[in-house]
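lol ok so funny story. i was supposed to be doing the assay writeup but got distracted and ended up predicting the structure for this chain instead. priorities right. anyway since i did it might as well share w the group, maybe its usefull for someone
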Amino acid sequence: MGSHFNFEQRKIIANKLAHGEKLCDIASLLEKDSTSISKEIKRNRVLTINGAPSDLVCEKTQKFPYVCSTCSKRYAKCHHNQYRYDANYAQDLADKRLVESRKGINIDKEDFEIINDIVKEGVNRKESIYHIVHANNINVSVPTLYRWIDNKLMSTTKMDLPYAVSFKKRRKQNEKYDYSSSRVDRSNRTFLDYLEFRRFNPGLFCWQMDFLGSIKTDSKYILTLIVPEIHFPLIKIFERPNQEKIRNFYDKLEKAIGTDSFSTVFPAILTDRDPCFIDYLGIEKSIYYEKNRTQIFYCDAFKSSQKGSVENMNRQLRKFFPKKKSIEHFTENQIREINIIMINTKIQSLNGFTPKEVFIKLFGEDILEELLKI
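and the output, tada:
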């Protein structure tokens, strides 16, 4: 295309044409093929104001130099179209042509329809665009698909994507409010203690824990756990959760995978100050031995950003559990199926691997199966 020439080269072409230079000499000077020079001149030449517009074809403009720069009749009465090559005009044409060439979709209609259907089906299954591209080996980049959706070229719309639309600004929290459990002694279990723990135990994969918000009339609540580094989520549903039920949940995990494996998989847990998580001694202490199986740490009050990974996971779960919608009808099996979908989603930061694949690599498939059974 004409974009192979820059403005300086076009000025040289215009100058050499005005002085009647040979095609081979111009090509040699610019270190270009003679055919490329010819195409550049013919593609970007322009009609002059001299001469009257006519359908008559001048033989001299059908071959090099394709313009009337050195023609003896260029200022005289001529019944043919007269052409000239102007560097500025040629550059403008080339720039415009480059922009136009990048518009639209550079793909066959049939291939586009196939991709369109794959994306639509994937989004309906609550899959991310990144997962859809890599799971189906689509030969189109993730940014390109987002651009097609944004330009309304696909049947999938921005409203179908969970985070492509903006959220309303949150109402300001009343920070004077305090939890009923504010008198609980959380010494050595604050967020600063958690950071110190991570400093002295850099190789451990610590979890973050939280409840997914639900409507006030619901008796069921969803507990979300996640290992931030590998994006591995574990979600469970509880009927009217309390301290005892949360402690029993961890007891079942220890019984299923053993104390040593429990301490390896759950070395520490960072959570908020929800009343259901008050019994840190019950969660920490092993049911078999006089020792701790894990360590519990608490975020500062009104600092949900300190456990940003689980907050982000809860946002992703909103694809399955929309706000202001009841979750009473969900069963444990349905929650398990959603959990399996989440751990089988390809993650860009994991280089296209799924959280399931990474978890198995770190802790083994047997432990994974036991966690999903609980």
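The beta strands are 46-47, 83-84, 207-212, 220-227, 232-239, 269-271, 296-298. The first helix runs from residue 7 to 18.
back to the writeup now i swear
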